[in-house]
Specification:
Length: about 240
């Protein structure tokens, strides 16, 4: 069995089948209308298999429908270049589409741009409501800034890429969560200090530290992207 990046996945010592690593995407929305930048987070349900009761960013696994819609999707050049490192060919646009779809499903917020032709397009089932509004996913507004693979031994494992996007790229109010599917509870805008006081997964703490650095020093494309993963030597972090 191989991971998304092609590295081998060894079976655990108890002989159980290891969890398959799925490509996934999360999105960190940044709102700058107040005195301090805010980010959007929500709480996973207490009964969730993966990270129960933890506060996280909207996100989830890449679906085949994301790959179908991603054909021709534009990416910011530096984001496209870094996403292609240790990844399947052409995966980057599908990751960006997945991030936008998950944001829409879990919060009701639409990161899109007007495109009347999309309403007439034969949309994949998971995208029908988004495209029917005459919108296309605004993939060029995303900036790739963090990557992490879930450690072995977890019931579900993801090769997750994290994207930053400005709340000003949303269509409509950034406070209207009426279309949320209910997977994330207590959706709220928080400054970094308030976010750190929540019950967070370890990887989210790492992501917050990276966000803080980027918000403090700008989001220049030359800043490297941390990539946390497991190797035969143990936990590793390298820069993309």
């Amino acid at each position: 069995m191989a991971s998304a990046a092609g590295s081998p996945v060894s079976p655990p010592p108890d002989g159980r089948e290891p969890a398959r690593i799925r490509d996934a995407a999360s999105i960190v929305l940044v709102r700058r209308s107040g005195r301090a930048p805010q980010i959007l987070m929500g709480q996973r349900g207490a009964g969730a298999v993966f990270m129960p009761a933890k506060f996280v960013f909207p996100g989830g696994a890449v679906d085949a429908e994301d790959a179908e819609l991603a054909s021709g999707a534009a990416l910011e050049p530096e984001t496209a270049r870094r996403l292609a490192i240790d990844a399947a060919p052409g995966l980057g646009p599908a990751l960006a589409c997945a991030a936008i779809r998950e944001l829409w499903e879990e919060t009701g917020l639409r990161l899109g741009a007007a495109d009347a032709a999309m309403a007439a397009r034969g949309a994949p089932a998971g995208w029908q409501g988004f495209l029917a509004a005459g919108l296309r996913p605004r993939t060029e507004a995303l900036r790739f800034f963090f990557r992490a693979v879930t450690p072995p031994g977890r019931p579900r494992r993801f090769d997750a890429r994290f994207f930053l996007a400005e709340a000003t790229a949303l269509v409509g109010s950034d406070e209207d969560f009426s279309g949320a599917c209910g997977e994330l509870l207590h959706l709220q805008w928080l400054d970094i200090a308030a976010a750190r006081r929540l019950s967070l997964p370890f990887v989210t703490e790492l992501v917050l530290a990276e966000i803080e650095q980027r918000l403090a020093g700008g989001e220049a494309g030359e800043r490297p992207v941390p990539y946390f993963h497991q190797s035969a030597e143990g936990p590793q972090c390298r820069m993309l």
